[in-house]
Fold these 2 entries.
Entry 1:
Amino acid sequence: MDQSLESEMTLSMGPQHPSTHGVLRLDLRLDGELVIKAIPDIGYLHTGMEKLFEYKKYQQGIVITDRMDYLNPLGNNLAYVMAAEKLLDLDIPERAQVVRVLMCELQRIASHMVWLGTSALDLGAMSIFFFCFREREKILNLIEAASGGRMTPSYFRIGGLMMDLPAGFDRRCKQFSDDFPAALKTFETLATGNPIWQSRTQGVGVISAEDAIDWGLTGPCLRGSGVELDLRRHNPYTGYETYDFDIPTEPDGDVWARFRVRMRELYESHKIVRQALERLKPGPIKADAPKVVLPDRDDMRKHMDSLIHHFLIVAEGFNVPEGEVYMPIEASKGELGVYMKSNGGPKPERVHFRGPSFVNLSALPVMSEGEMIADVVAIIGSLDIVLGEIDR
Amino acid sequence: MTEKLHAYVEKLRGEHGDWVTDVVEGHGEVTVVVPRESIVDACTFLKDTHGFDLLADLCGADRGPEEDPRFEVNYHLFSTKHYNRLRLKVLLSEDAPNVATVTQVWKTADWHERETFDLFGIIFDGHPDLRRILLPSDFDGHALRKDYPLRGYEPYSMN
């Protein structure tokens, strides 16, 4: 195996390859089965979303964010609306904050479910996929109950939430969180304890902590290299500093370490969901900013000024003070940063999304060079990329 | 909140007086405008001496064709040691949209700079592989410039 064939072969993997998780093409230079060079080729899903933001009012931009990281749309919503709220200096009421944390953690579990299911499927472990999607389905039902959309919720709005949680939501959510530990046990049995899974992932795609920081990795990929960095703890937002959770890290930096980090994160997210459910107290869900936040339907029938505000927000939008902000959050895949620049009008001057998948994928050549070609599939799976966010 | 950030700006100014042309504060963030000749030195100094070891983001912005300087390049620095964030900004005119690459400081700058080149036409001198990244290699123009129409000049065909 170590004997070099001294003949190089180029293999184009993708863009329509099931384990590239979307439309990613890899230019692989191979020596036998050994990867000498891997060059990712992206842009197949580029739809000019950042350009589109500049032509839409601030509140219209929210629906575009759903379509970026389509496995974690609520995280995208949150980063975008928080960037706008930072420019507007809005105070978000307590209940809205708690609901945001609750929904984001549910979404994180759902996103990790897709990661676990598909990355295991890539390595030939088919049955775990069905268990993962069963759990994800329950979360999508919850998200649908709250927002009306399963994949594209647009639930967080500038200044608060689209609407309050429906009646009985906390009961359904509690039911899910009661059932979830049993599912986690199933995953641990099916994947963690599986010797084939272990031998396919351990020691594969290693990246050291220094390299990981140099390549800008964030989220589970960075924590899998032993660096304790979680923006929920270190740059806290929406009150995450008041929740009790641990930051799982693994020192090895291989596919197995990243797998373990995400598995342990599921327990932590579950913990946060339970805490958020306990904190859910009645209260306002929108900021007290009538010129920015849409009024309640009921108010519009009774108060003339509510009707006027509604008309102006929908027809003309609201002006956002001049300035620029960078709003980073800990999305399910790493640091999701929104750079937003306003020149005072109702439309942003520039919106840039720093997608974690984009940066994490750029480190793929470092991890895969010198590995076997079959392991490239395992490495891509362990990066948990979403091409919608990479290409934007 | 921002005192710590201003301390870094002072250190930057103390190290070399010419590295800081302007400091803007807003929304709890500090922006340092750096002349384009000094960006690599300023970044290296902040990374090596003050622990800004992670380049969180690098993005361009266009102020519009009538403005001069027209382009901005924003460097969002982050530290995995003290968790502070600092934004460096380089202003570029339309005639010479060139700035030195920071890929030798942070490897992650590679793709960010390619994206900025692709969408704004900003040239990063010394970049090892400055190709388009999101748009096809034969694409005309730079899509995120303000004078580029939303729907493009003509229907793009894949042939």
Entry 2:
Amino acid sequence: MSDPAPTPDTPTDADRDELRRQGILLTSMEELYNWGRSRSVWPLNFGLACCAIEMMAASMARFDIARFGSEVFRPSPRQADLIIISGTVTKKMAPQVVRLWNQMPEPKYCIAMGACAISGGPFKQGYNVLKGIDRYIPVDIYIPGCPPRPEALLHGLMQLQEKIRGQRLTGPTAPPHLQKDTTCDYPVPAFGAHDLEPPKNPALWQPPVLVRKEGA
Amino acid sequence: MNPHPYAFLALFAAVAVAFPLALLALAQLWFRFFQPAKPGAVKNDVYECGIESTGDSWIQFKAHYYLYAILFLIFDVEVLFLLPFAVAFSGLPVGALVAMSVFILLLAEGLVWAWHRGHLEWR
């Protein structure tokens, strides 16, 4: 989290922690900004399958996602910061998911919730099931489980908040949407003769290379 | 010297204009210094939806319900104005009486028109 070459003049995170213990709040605009937005991550009101039931449970009184500032499920992608892919993404549904993702304004984040969203899960062999939403959308947090418990979703959200807090506003390590000459357009797949076209976003996902050992 | 009893309205108006302007200016500064715009064909679509939107956002709303608006005006709004008229009837000057008669006649004309066209029949 600290700068690559901290000079003696710039305070490190350890310095700030030490000052905070003494009752002095020393912060930067970047830290303040990330502190604010990491605690108000608004998810898209969007559920796909049984994981969505757990997502609803997480938003209700017992698990209470409002403790983490994410209770504001927005019905419009234009107001959402986070898309929770909660359930099986069929190939029929994949274009709609990618279109919704494209319509969300930056900064935006994606949580793949459950085995289906990660890899197709128990339906991986199905001809109509997308084998993981990360073929089209950059996924920030993967939450395993079938379905994951609401606690697991909350933990995933906390991990996402951790990630947001560590993001840079400027410089080469800043996320792509803050860079000048990057595109944030993700191609929306279309129904082809046999499969979705394109079957993946090659910039995001490449099939693993299988290496067969000699004599095995 | 006491301020004008409605001076607070001017204050409210000033705050109501200044607050959103300040926020918009802040957003513009943020855009200028940190976050370059990332428009896209899908993002700038007419309507935000998983399904591809068709057509333009400039559509014509059909005015099929104008009849109900007219009849509502005749029966409901007329009653609304007739009630204070009836209450203050004995103390009204001639001008008010004439104005009210014109108002009632106008609406009655609408009623005659709707009746003549057969819009009052239950189908």
